[in-house]
Amino acid sequence: MSKQYGFYVDTDKCIKCWACEIACKQWNGIQAGTVARRKVHEVTTGTFPNVTRKFISLSCMHCANPACASVCPAGAITKRSEDGIVVVDKNKCIGCHYCFMACPFGVPQYTDEGMEKCDCCIGNGVTPGDTPHCVMSCPTQALQFGELAELGDAVSQMTAAEIVGTPLASANATAGPTVTAATVVMTPDELAIDDGGEKVAAVNSNGC
Amino acid sequence: MAELQTVWGWLPAIYLFLAGLSAGTFLAVTVLRFAVPDRFNRTITYGSWAALAFLAVGLLALLAETEKPFQALIMFTSFVNFSSWMTIGAWLLLVAFVLFLVNAILVTPRLVQNAGASAKTAGKVVAIIGAVAAVCVALYSAVLLGAAPSVPLWQTWTLPLLFLASAVDTGLALTLMVLLFDKDKTDNPKVVALFERAICVAVVVEALVLAAFVLTSLSSDVTSAYSASILTSGAMSVPFWAGVVIIGLAIPLVISAIAAATSGKDTKLPVAASVAGGACSLVGGLALRYVVLAAGTHAAIIAPLAFEAMLGIQLML
Amino acid sequence: MTEKKSLTRRTFLQGTAALGALAALTGCTSSSLEEAPVNQEAIDGGEVEVRHAWCQMCGPARTSCSTLCYIKDGRWVNVEGNPAAGNNWGRGSRSLCAKGQAAMQTIYDPTRLLYPMKRVGEKGEGKFERCTWDEGIQAFADKLKELADDGMPQALGMLSPQFWPVLAQMGRRFMNVYGTPNYMHSAICASQRAASKRISIGPKADCAPKQMDKTELLVIWGANPENSAVNQGQPANIVKQKARGMKLIDIRPMMDQLTSKADIWLPIRPGTDGALALAFLNVIIGEDLYDHDFAENWCNGFDKLAEHVKQFSPEWAAEKTGLDAEQIRTVARIMGTTKPMGILYGNGIGDQQNDGNWECVSICLIEAITGNLDVPGGGGAGKVAPPPLVKTSAIDILTDRMPESDIDKENGFAPGVGNLVAPEFPRWYQGPKTWESGGSTAYYKGLMSILSEEPYPLRAVLGQGSNPFGATRQPKNVAEALKKLEFYVVVDTHWNSSCDYADYVLPACSHYEAGQQFATKNSPAGTFIGMNQQIQEPMGESRSDWDFLLDLAVAMGYGDDFWGGDMDECLREQLAGSGITLEQLREANGGIFVERTDGAKPTDPVYQNYGELFAMLPNGKVQCYNEWIGGKPNCMETGELGFLPEYSGPPEGIAETPDLVEEYPLIISDVHAYRLCEHSYYVSIPYLRELQPYPWVRINPATAKKYGIADGDWVKIESPYGWCKLQAQYFEGISPEVLMARRGWWQSCEELGLPGYGSLDGGADTTVLYNTDIEKFDPFHSSMAKQTLVKISKTEEGEE
Ligand SMILES: Nc1nc2c(c(=O)[nH]1)N[C@H]1C(S)=C(S)[C@@H](COP(=O)(O)OP(=O)(O)OC[C@H]3O[C@@H](n4cnc5c(=O)[nH]c(N)nc54)[C@H](O)[C@@H]3O)O[C@H]1N2
Ligand SMILES: Nc1nc2c(c(=O)[nH]1)N[C@H]1C(S)=C(S)[C@@H](COP(=O)(O)OP(=O)(O)OC[C@H]3O[C@@H](n4cnc5c(=O)[nH]c(N)nc54)[C@H](O)[C@@H]3O)O[C@H]1N2
Ligand code: SF4
Ligand code: SF4
Ligand code: SF4
Ligand code: SF4
Ligand code: SF4
Ligand SMILES: [Mo]
Description:
- The complex is a heterotrimer of chains A (208), B (317) and C (800).
- Chain A folds into 2 domains: 5-58 and 125-201, 2-Layer Sandwich (Alpha-Beta Plaits); 67-118, 2-Layer Sandwich (Alpha-Beta Plaits).
- Chain A is 21% helix and 21% strand.
- Chain A is built from 7 helices and 9 strands; from the N terminus they run βαββαββαββαβαααβ.
- Chain A has a 3-stranded antiparallel sheet with strand order 3-2-9, with no helix packed on it.
- Chain B has 317 residues and is mainly α.
- Helices cover 76% and strands 0% of the residues of chain B.
- In chain B, α1 (10-35) packs antiparallel against α2, α1 crosses α12 and α7 (158-179) packs antiparallel against α9.
- In chain C, strands 5-4-16-15-14-6-7-13 form an 8-stranded mixed sheet. In chain C, strands 21-25-22-24-23-26 form a 6-stranded mixed beta barrel.
- Chain C is globular and about 65 Å long.
- The relative contact order of chain C is 0.14.
- Chains A and C meet through α1, β2, β3, α4 and β8 of A and α1, β3, α3, α9 and α25 of C.
- The structure holds ligand MGD (2 copies), iron/sulfur cluster (SF4) (5 copies) and molybdenum atom.
- One ligand MGD is lined by residues 61, 161-162, 186, 188-189, 347, 352, 464-467, 470-471, 491-494, 496, 508, 510, 545, 670, 672, 679-681, 743-744, 766-767, 786 of chain C.
C-alpha cells in the first residue's frame, strides 16, 4: 500500500466539546436531525464518587480491508489505492443498509441519497491529505489527522511498547507497525466478535 | 433501555419470511407431486403459483427497504459485487424466480394441455432443479444475515438451520391449507394425515433448532447474549414467546398432533382447526424473522469496558 | 488465542481509552498557516466569498474568536476560525467551539423576531400588532422626556447583565448624557468575583495562573473553562499542562469534562464552597503550611485571621459540604505544599452564592498566604506582551456628563451613585477611583423597586439583549414588577419570555447583519485587527443594536453627542490614529495582520511586585483582616460589613436548614455557561439543539431509582418557591443528594420541531426555584444563590 491516512484521537485531551461533530456537519452540508459522519462518544464507568469518563471522537476508520466494501452489492464503496481513503459513490449506492451490518464501528448511516460517511473531507474540497475540518476545529488538538506512519511516530516509542499486549495492539499486529493501534486504521477482515466484559454503565453521545 | 436493531425494519422481515415460505411451499408441493403422482393437481398448481408470488412479493419488500428501489431494480448495475452475499442472493433469487415461473406454468393444466412425455420429463427436471434452488433460497436468507460480521446474534450456524426449518414448516403448513380444500383429499385421507405428521416433525425439529440458537447465543459473547436476552426477557420477549413459541410452534404442534391422531376416526378434527393451525404457523414464521432481525444488535452499540482495560494498563506503568 | 482477539469497536474503544492515558503526543500540529484555505479554487473563481466576523456566541464576558465566513450564492454557508488572528492556542488555529461552528444558523433562524411590535392588549396577555421603528423609538423618547421633565431621569434603568459593548459603551454614553446611573448589572456575573478580589488582594493581583506552563497545581473551583472558554485556549492549555505533569484538583458538584481529567475531584454540595475555603485556611494556617515571609510582610491582620479560622475545622466543613473531613485535610495540605499553585474559580461560586464575597475573599487569601501570588506559574504573573502595533480607542462614554449630586459630592461617590435605585455594591465603594465606568444597580433589586417603590420606583426599563425572566431569579416576581412598570421596551433578536409584558418589542439584527464593530488581538507575532463585515442584509425589518441607541439619542435631541446618528462616524473616531481606515477594514476580508518586525518578545514581569500589586489596599497589604470593607455599611445600607470571612451557606441547605430537608431532600444548582448555548439562547439553533433536545437535570441513578424515575423520564422539581419540569438524565458523576440542570429553555427549534418551554412555574427554567429574600443576598456585592433544596417526582402521565 502506498499511503494510508488516518485519525488519532487523544482521549486525554478530548473534552467532548462537539466542535468536530458540528464542523463536519456544516462543511459537508449535513442537515441537523439527520446523520452524523463524526460522533463524540462517551464511556462512563464506575459509581459515584469513583467515576471515570472517557471521550472518544470517531468517524469512519478507513479500514485496511473495509468490511463495508466487501458486502456492498453495488460496489459503491472503494478504498482508494493512492491514499487509503474509503469513499462511497452515492450514484452507485442503492441504499440497502447492508454495509451498516458489516461495519464493526456502526459507521454507515443513510439518507435518501444513499450511504453517508466520512471521506476525509475530499468531497467538500479539501485536498486529500490536507487537514480535514473536524481536525481543524478541535480546540484542544486532541484530534489529529495524517499519514499513519507519521501519526505513529508522534506517539513515543515508550508508549508504543506499553500498548503491546492490549487487545488493540495485538489485533493490529498483522496490520503493520504496532503504533497503528494509536490511529483508527485497522483490519476488519480479522473481525470476529469479541467476548468478554460486562455492559458498562453508559455510553452516550449527547450527555453532559 | 433496549437497543433494538432498526436499520433493517419490517420489510426485510417480510422478505425473509416470504422467501422462506416460498421455498418451503415449493419443496412441499414438489414432494407431493413426486410422492403421489397425478393427484392433487389443484394443490400443486396453486402451491406452485403461490411459491412464485411469495418470492416476488418478498423481493419487492426487500427493494422497498432500500433508499433507491428503482435503481435497485436494475440488477445489472446494482448487484455487481460478487463478494457480497446480497449480490449472490439477488441473482439466486432471480434464478429461483425463473425456475418457479417455468415450473408453475408447467404444472398448470390449463396452460399446458396434453404435454408430451419429453415435456413431462423436462417439467420434472425443472422441478428438481427448482427444489435445489428452493433449498438455497431458504438457507440463503440466513446466510445473508450471517455475512454481516458486526451483528453477533447472526453469527451462528444454527441460524441457517433455523430458517430452513421454519421454511419447511411454513411451506408444509401452507400446502396443507391448500390441500384441505382439494377434492382429491377425500380419496387420499392418508396423505393429509401424513402431512399433519410431517408438520409435527417439522415443528419439533424447528423447536429444537430454535432452542439451540437461543441457548448458544445466550452463552456466547456479550452482544449475542444481550441480543438473545432481548428475545427471552427483553423488548422482544412478547413477540418471541407469544408469537414464535406459542402461536408459531406450540399451537400448530398440538393441532397437527390431534389431527394426525384422529385422522380416519369418527371424531375428526374440523377442517377449520387445521386451517387455523396452518395460519398460526405462518404468523410464527413471520414473527421469527422479525424478532431475529430486531434483536440483531450491532456490536458497536454495546459499550466497552474501557475502565477495566485502562486499569490494566495503568498497573503496567 | 486471545492474542488474535478480534477487533470490534468495543475492543477498539478500550484500546483508545487506554492509549489516551498514556499518549504523549508532541509537536504534531494539525494545521498551519501555510495550508491553503479550503476551496481556494472556488474562492479564486468568485463562487465563494470569504468575509471576516467576530464570533460573539459565548457572550461579551469572554473575548471573541475571529472567524472567516464563507458565502455562496448570497447565503452564508460555512465558517471557520481565522488562522491569522491567533484564536485559541495561537496563530494558525482554525478551531472554533461547537457554537461557533453553527454560527450561520443564528441568522437564518426561523424563530427570529422580524418586525417592530406594539402591545395592544393587557400586559402579559400577548396581544401585539405591528408598528414602525419610528413609532417605537418616538414613544420611548417621549417617555424619557416625561421622566426628565419630572426631574427623575434616574427612573430609567437599562438591563445589562454582562458587559456587552453595545450597552457598556454606547448605552452607558446615552445614560450619562441622559442622566441615569441605573445600569442594571446582573449581580451574579464576573464583577462579583472581581470586586472580592479587589478588596482582598487588589485589582492587579490574580489567582488564576498566567504562566500555566510552570504551574504545578491547578485548582478549578466552580469554574467551567471547558464550556465557558472553549476557544480561548483555556481547556487546550489545561490538557496540555496536564500532560506535562501539572496536577489538577476540581471542585464542582458534577463531574464535568475537565473534572474527569482531574487527579482529585471534590464533589461539593452546591452553595457550601465558603465552608470548604474556610476549612482550607484552617488547615493551611493550623498546620503551618503558609508562607511566613509573606504573612509577616504583606498581610494585614494575619494573626486575626489565624485566630478566626481556628473554628472552621475540616470536620465542621465536612458536615456542611458533604465531603470527607480527611479528604478536605489532604487537599488543603496539597494546596499548602505544592508550588506554584493557581486557582481558577468561576461563576459557579462567588458570583452566585449568598456568601459569595467572603468565599472569594477566602480563596484569594489561600492563594496569597501560600506564597503563590505573582510568582511564575502561580496566580497572575503573566509575561508582558510587546505593545500592540495598532492602537484604537474605545467609545468615550462621557462620564463627565453625569450630573454630580450633593450627596455624591459629600460622600465621595462617583457621579450619579447617590441616585442609584439599588446599588449593586455599597455606594461608598462606588467611588470615582474604583468605579470609573459609572454607578451600578443590582438587576433583581432594581426591578423590585417597581413594586416596593423604595427608594423610588423605576418607571422605564430597556431590555436590550437581556431576558429578565431568565437572567435573574423568580420570574414571577419580575412579571409582577413588569406589570406595574410604566414603560418597558425590548430590543431583541427573539420574542423572549418577557416580551409579553413590553410596550414595544423591537427586532434587533445580529452583528453579522450590521458590520459596526471591530476588535484587535495582540500577540508577540504582531497585532490583528478585524471588522465584523456585513454578511447578510438584516432579516425582515430588524436593525442593529448600535443604530437603535443612536436613533434614540437623535430622537432625544442628542444628535451632536452621537455623531448625528451615524455609526460610521463613531467607528472612524475609534480608529483615528490607528493608521487604518474604516474603508480598509471593510475591504479586508480576512482582517489585517500587522506583523511585528522589531523582534520584540514577551518579557518577564517583575515578580512578587507586591508593593505595586497591593498599593490600592489599606496599609498596602493583603486584607486578611479586611479594613477596606469592615465596619462600613453594606450595599443595602441596613447594617455593617464584617472584617473577617464568614460562612452563611445556601439559603436552603442540607446542613443549613435541616427542617426543610425532610420535605425537600435534594439540593440543586445549575450551569449556564454551557457549550451549546449562550445563557438561555441558541436553544433554537438546529446543530446545537440536536445534541441536547430537551431540558435536562442530571441525577444519580441511585436517587432516581429511589423515586421511581427512569432515565429519560420527565420529572417535576419543586422547591419551596416554585417548580419546573425537566427530563431526568442518569449520571453517575453526581452525588446522590445533588441535582444539576442547565438553565434557560424558552426557545423553540422549528427546524427540528422541538418546543420551547415556559419560564414561569411549570416551565423548564430553574430560576423559578431559587430564594429571592433580598436580606439574604450578599451584603457586599448583592449576589444571590442559585442553590436550593428541592423534591423530585415523576410527572403524571401525559403531563410532559
Ligand atoms: N459557552 C458559553 N460560554 C460562556 C457563557 C455562555 O453562556 N456560554 N457565558 C459567559 C458568561 S456571562 C460568564 S459569567 C462566564 C461564566 O463562566 P464560568 O465562570 O466558567 O462559570 P459557569 O459556567 O457559570 O459555572 C461554573 C461551574 O460551576 C459549577 N457550579 C454550579 N453551582 C456550583 C456550586 O455551588 N459550587 C461549585 N463549586 N460549583 C458550582 C457549574 O457546574 C459549572 O461547572 O462564561 C462566559 N462564557
Ligand atoms: N439560574 C441562573 N441564572 C443566571 C445564571 C446562572 O448561571 N444560573 N447566570 C447569570 C449570568 S453570569 C449572566 S451574565 C446572566 C445573563 O443574562 P442575559 O444576558 O439576560 O441572558 P438571557 O437571559 O439569555 O437573555 C439574553 C437575551 O438577548 C437576546 N439576544 C441575543 N442576541 C442578541 C443581539 O445580538 N441583540 C439583542 N438586542 N438581543 C440579543 C436573546 O434572545 C435573549 O432574549 O444570567 C445570569 N442568570
Ligand atoms: S468498515 Fe466501517 S469503519 Fe471501516 S471503512 Fe467501512 S465504514 Fe469505515
Ligand atoms: S447502502 Fe449503499 S454503500 Fe451500503 S452496502 Fe448498500 S449499496 Fe453499498
Ligand atoms: S474528515 Fe471531514 S468528513 Fe470525515 S469526519 Fe472529519 S469533517 Fe467529517
Ligand atoms: S473537537 Fe476535539 S476536544 Fe472537541 S470533542 Fe472533538 S476531538 Fe474532542
Ligand atoms: S469560543 Fe466559540 S462561541 Fe465563543 S467566540 Fe469562540 S467560537 Fe464563538
Ligand atoms: Mo455572566
